[in-house]
Amino acid sequence: MLEDDLAKLFGLNLKMARLKRNIKQEDLCAMANLDRSYLSRVERGKNKLTLDKVYALAAALDCPLSELLPEIRGVKCN
Fold first, then answer.
1. What is the CA radius of gyration of the chain?
2. Residue 36 falls in which region: left (phi positive, over 0), alpha (psi -120 to 50) or beta
3. Which of 20, 22, 55, 73 is deepest in the core (most CB within 10 A)?
């Protein structure tokens, strides 16, 4: 899977989690200390996040990381 595909899938998962909780982009940005234009690019798969921002978003949404992270089939962890 390409990095761009992962970014798009993460962005879609993030947007769905946000909408599921009826949270506006502006409100999520305030809760996660992010710029709204940055969050918009993330939701569209245009920006890649650092791990600290992923955790901040999960905490702000009060959701497990697994809800945001794309599932990758065929990847084995040792």
1. 12
2. alpha
3. 55
Spatial separation of the C-alpha atoms in residues 56 and 33, rounded to whole Å: 8
54 burial (CB, 10 Å; 0-12 / 13-18 / 19+) is middle
Convert 28-73 into a string of H (helix), E (strand) and C (coil): HHHHHCCCHHHHHHHHCCCCCCCHHHHHHHHHHHCCCHHHHCCCCC
CATH topology of domain 3-62: 434 Repressor (Amino-terminal Domain) (1.10.260)
From first to last of the 78 residues of the chain, give the pLDDT tens digit: 576 788 999 999 999 999 999 999 999 999 999 999 999 999 999 998 999 999 999 999 999 999 999 887 655 444
Q: Which residue has the tokens 């009060």?
A: 62
For the entire predicted model, the pTM comes to: 0.87
